[in-house]
Write a structure and sequence with these properties.
The chain has a single domain, classed as ABC transporter involved in vitamin B12 uptake, BtuC, CATH 1.10.3470. α2 packs antiparallel against α7, α3 crosses α11 and α5 runs antiparallel to α10. It has a two-stranded antiparallel sheet with strand order 1-2. It has 16 helices and two strands. It is mostly helical and 385 residues long. The relative contact order is 0.14.
Length: 385
């Protein structure tokens, strides 16, 4: 059993273990009504942020393209998925917490966002760098303003779209399950041959094209998958609110999602998840603590905290501190067994394990015994006579 456990690459499963543990602990506490409403709402926000950060990490961290329209795809999922659930609940007179309606809304919102991702990505992904960022940013602002200027009968207009509100004691559980599903899809994609092609495009697009990789196909694939999960996060968001308003999905929200990915580490899913959870927690607590006249300091304090985190992650002078005090080093100390020198039996310097041209078991020493010499001399004298 120990041998089997030692062969497992735990770095690939640490995300699943942490999310499952968080789900188990919070689920038990919620079942006994030990979690206040503010904590339940915070858990909902954290799950949404995790899905958004993981999905954007595929585009920014692994594909190497800069997208600033992630909130736009979330907006599509929130409005279209939320409208679908609202119509179904009203027409068939089902409760807001109906699981079947919730699941169908997730599918509808994800598919709609994926379609928009394909439509925008097909021409936009021919661009690179700042140009792609500008196009995706423009898409996010355009789609937000389209929903803002709709009629009250269709998508609510400026007043917002009324949507079902699922029970807080249940919704965050579905949120954690969706996080696990998002992580599983993204991680398995990156570890597959398609993921190697995607990272090859990021490292050197010209070399990847020369080896026969279909650049357009893989870029579209990544963009569509990322958009679909952003749409699913949008549907989950619509179920956390009684009303969906378009002003929430502005460019500041897209930049906030991008900050989660950058601070967590480009192409580092575990770091991205940790960053998303911490930033969401900070935002929530700053809004709760800095109220009234101090509300103007929220953005200032938030910015200072982010600057401090970035300096700590990138300053050369703090390299030794980062290497000594990090989760990887702590995990290695916990899991690595301590060796007792008195009981140590494995010596890689023993003569029988040192590679040589002559087998050491065959020839150890070469010596001449005195009796052998005397016998040889007598034999020679007898021949002479």
């Amino acid at each position: 059993m120990k041998k089997f456990l030692s062969t497992i690459k735990w770095k690939y499963y640490i995300g699943y273990l942490v999310i499952t543990l968080a789900l188990a602990v919070t689920g038990i506490l919620s079942a006994v009504n030990a979690l206040p409403n503010s904590t339940l709402y915070l858990l909902e926000e954290i799950t949404i942020a995790l899905i958004l950060a993981i999905s954007l990490s595929v585009v920014v961290g692994f594909l190497g393209e800069l997208s600033l329209g992630h909130a736009g795809f979330m907006c599509v999922g929130a409005y279209l998925g939320g409208k679908f659930s609202a119509v179904i609940c009203e027409k068939f007179a089902v409760s807001d917490s109906n699981f079947a309606v919730f699941l169908l809304s997730l599918i509808a919102g994800g598919i709609c966002a994926a379609v928009f991702g394909f439509i925008i990505g097909l021409p936009a992904l021919r661009l690179k760098g700042d140009y792609l960022a500008i196009v995706t940013l423009a898409f996010g602002e355009i789609i937000r303003n389209i929903f803002l200027n709709t009629s009250s009968e269709s998508f609510g207009g400026a007043l917002g779209l009324p949507t079902p509100r699922m029970n807080k004691n249940i919704l965050f559980v579905f949120g954690f399950l969706l996080v696990l599903a998002t992580l599983a899809v993204v991680q398995n994609l990156i570890r597959s041959k398609h993921g190697r092609a995607i990272t090859a495009i990021r490292d050197n697009e010209i070399a990847a094209r020369a080896t026969g990789i279909d650049i357009t196909k893989y870029k579209l694939l990544v963009f569509v998958i990322s958009s679909a999960f952003a749409g699913i996060a949008g549907v989950l968001y619509s179920y956390t609110k009684a009303t969906v308003r378009s002003e929430i999905f502005d460019y500041n929200y897209s930049i906030e999602i991008l900050v989660m990915v950058v601070i967590g580490g480009m192409g580092n899913l575990s770091g991205t998840m940790l960053s998303a959870a911490v930033i969401t927690y900070l935002n929530n607590k700053l809004m709760a603590v800095l109220t009234g006249n101090l509300a103007v300091l929220q953005n200032l304090v938030y910015a200072l905290i982010l600057i401090g985190i970035i300096i700590y992650n990138n300053a050369p002078a703090l390299k030794n501190v980062r290497e000594k005090y990090n989760l990887g080093t702590l995990w290695a100390k916990i899991t690595k067994p301590k060796k007792d020198p008195a009981k140590e039996t494995d010596d890689t310097g023993r003569w029988d394990v040192v590679p040589t041209k002559i087998e050491m078991d065959e020839v150890l020493t070469v010596g001449i015994i005195k009796k052998d010499i005397e016998a040889s001399e007598k034999k020679e004298e007898g021949k002479d006579e």
